[in-house]
Amino acid sequence: MSPIDTLHPILVDGRWIRAGAPTGRFRAVDPSTKRELGGRGYPVSDWPDLEAMLAAGRRAAADMARLPAGRIADFLDTYAGAIEARAAELVETAHRETGLPTEPRLRNVELPRTSGQLRQAAQAARDGGWSRPTIDTAAGIRSVHGPLGGPVLVFGPNNFPFAFNGIAGGDFAAAIAAGNPVIAKAHPGHPGTSALLAEAALASAEATGLPAGAVQMFFHADVGLGLRLAADPAVAAVAFTGSRAAGMALKAAADKAGKPVYVEMSSVNPVFVLAGALRERGTAIANELHASCAMGAGQFCTKPGLAVLAPGGHAEAFVEALRHLTAAAAPGVLLTPRSPQAVADAVARLRSAGADLLAGGGIADAAAGHAFQPTLLRVSGRRFLEDPVALQSEAFGPVCLLVAADSTEQLPRIAEAMEGNLTAAVYSDTGGADDETYDALERILRPRVGRLLNDRMPTGVAVSAAMNHGGPFPSTGHPGFTAVGFPAAAIRFSALHCYDNVRHHRLPPSLRDHNPTGALLRWIDGEWTTRDA
Amino acid sequence: MSPIDTLHPILVDGRWIRAGAPTGRFRAVDPSTKRELGGRGYPVSDWPDLEAMLAAGRRAAADMARLPAGRIADFLDTYAGAIEARAAELVETAHRETGLPTEPRLRNVELPRTSGQLRQAAQAARDGGWSRPTIDTAAGIRSVHGPLGGPVLVFGPNNFPFAFNGIAGGDFAAAIAAGNPVIAKAHPGHPGTSALLAEAALASAEATGLPAGAVQMFFHADVGLGLRLAADPAVAAVAFTGSRAAGMALKAAADKAGKPVYVEMSSVNPVFVLAGALRERGTAIANELHASCAMGAGQFCTKPGLAVLAPGGHAEAFVEALRHLTAAAAPGVLLTPRSPQAVADAVARLRSAGADLLAGGGIADAAAGHAFQPTLLRVSGRRFLEDPVALQSEAFGPVCLLVAADSTEQLPRIAEAMEGNLTAAVYSDTGGADDETYDALERILRPRVGRLLNDRMPTGVAVSAAMNHGGPFPSTGHPGFTAVGFPAAAIRFSALHCYDNVRHHRLPPSLRDHNPTGALLRWIDGEWTTRDA
Prior knowledge:
Two copies of one chain form a homodimer. Chain A contains 15 helices and 23 strands. Chain A has 533 residues and is of the alpha/beta class. Chain A has two domains: 4-25 and 48-128 and 139-264, 3-Layer(aba) Sandwich (Aldehyde Dehydrogenase, Chain A, domain 1); 271-454, Aldehyde Dehydrogenase, Chain A, domain 2, CATH 3.40.309. The longest helix of chain A is centred in the N-terminal third of the chain and has 26 residues, at 102-127.
């Protein structure tokens, strides 16, 4: 392990500086070989590092609040371009650190998604529509959503080294678009990737005149310090994507300190396959389910981890088809050294709650990398209803649990036992044979999920204004917000700024009588309009 | 005290029923005479009462989710009319229970505000614009804000028997407009008023075909049961207006259970009077401040409890004018038997933190009712900065603390010591002499308050689409939301319902290709429009 003076520096207040007295250090690991990667190690920061970032973040927040929206948009656009310019290096580094395939995943899907997301955020910042300027001329009251007044703390997950990275992903883009600085915690699963992104972010911030401290990053800190950071008065909001245990701890710390916190935690994303659909196209749906579950070695927050099958002989054929597909599939590489055991633990929980193993089930030892066998389990509807909490344990890997309903009447009861999820999907007969069952399920599932799908698997989260990548607790902490999709994602990181009888020249440009761009949509005296007030 | 069988019934699942085995009972008190009022006593409910309301609320939520928006709007309009039809009885009862003046306050201001609020909520429900329907035709994804899937628990405060009543006020109207049932906890300070309102609500719900359980109310429960209720899985969200201690406890319970919670707690609403304004019109501002502070005997969440004066001789004249006004004012009636002592405790906290008493300061014993002397305190800026937390203790009564700044440079430091507040006001010279100081203060105050005022006192919260009756913690729990003003208030009680590839006939009307009203504004493929998709 490298001595302290060769550890990678952290990004504080516009400069890469040596971490002060790190409490530990670590190296990146290539999960496809289980070997530590060369180059510099990374520091585990102590409190003074974080304190310096808080102070710089506060200053940056005050400065960013005065910047024209176009400047923030310029930064986001420039950063998107910088990521594309360094695509080769980023893809190579991310591949080594995560084992995710270079193509198409990293190069053709995730990297363009990330730069595209930044450009959508730029567009939202530039046109200002996300901020909902509202003018009541009779009352003399005007309001608009604006920045929070402090840095937003963003914790990225292990499974998207670009698109959900704390220093480049959706939460980062949304927080910046709303005018806030970001303090990012890199995920230790891909520190080199995060460092490259942070370099690009810093260069873009400098090129576009963002204040020092607008983008900051550290690599790691002990759990207690992370919670202390989340609760610090200088932090304006917290965003997190990851495990339920970590999300719940962060949420508790931030809640207690009274600050907005957005956690995206766990979800089994149930897929219901109704009788008519099983009869009509069971094999095709089995293929879809297998592909969706195997994608990214099952390490997506929207992986369908649970499928509920209507009863009957076609269900048995479906199970058999899926069992063959699963047994024949090669294990994909998992993201971290801890991943195989974590998946094994989840499978053990499902089995001890009564699920039978149909295929796979073990840590894959044939491959050189961290891996787990593609795994299929099965449980009856009756057994599921006896222990629905344990049988909804998320296995973050290539694992799917089939719930074979004992009767059609049981389907709604199974749906009622579902926790809050990001998504649910229902496959039904195209001719309408399942419509009655669909209606009964829809009533139950609608308030339990963020995104309801028909005849489509939940993996693949389009960056669309209509997307909801969110859902009821415990999938997230608030069912009214999405982490993906602009302009909606930006509003999470804003405060409602109301001006009552404030003199006209003191108002922000978006609230003055004259429409600042001519195209800004504002709610003036009861109508959305681009006219002057 | 009345025996159990003469206690007022509670409203459960569409019927007035006797509380089962109440854990206690209480009577309404006339605070202007300190005497218990006649008529029936009111029950303190035990858990089975609340459990029955939860079950009914869940059923009602499922049914309300299927109602056309027009039906909910009809209910809100009908209820507004019913309140106006029973205005005489309501005003008389509220006056007896709260001591608030019949005219203009209750009859001419608060009651019309309440019915007007319900009609604004009806309008929001009818036109549906609050729900932000969003359609992405290329991706096949559509989303709209919809009800939460369970009842919303609303706790009203003591100081607005109509406009913030749990069964009739802003949170009630917003929760219903978003399609949710409400379980209201009446405030024990005005149980008879709440019962009359609940009768009108029930009759209106029946007349417009809302499900039984859409509007329910209980009168009281022990603190522990209130917290258990807030954390119950059947409750979809919690809204509270009241003291910081109670709000924090409720917020903690709801946060832990992972549900949206909106608490409006405490605020001292600082007013800054700059040097030019003091010189130009100090006496006029002193009069305004006195009137704003005395209004409702100082029992408004937007009462200016703290005024910061720029240094100089004009500040001394201002203090003197205010001292005269305060000393000459008659004590108003406070809302509850506990109010005088609570105000006395707050004044004691301010004094022990170094504030000097200039006028008043004691419980008013001359009047027959619960009252506190109009009170003025003063502290230097230097002393304030030594203990800013204690010196921001809210006194919920006719109490104002003047902070006399020692220098102009000290003003921003005083502003920086401010906690999150609902409002801040700045009075400045009309000629521009204070503009530099204003700019410095605005930068600091903007992220610390929801509503920033110029040359206007904060009391009087207009029901405007541009209003923000909210603010950063600890004034509320989230700075992005307002409790007053439609359509924004409704969005708090909604989930984002996303439909991905869902068959067209299964979409809610607001997301189908055809615009259901022809006038519903929807975000379709990147523009707000009323056209069909």
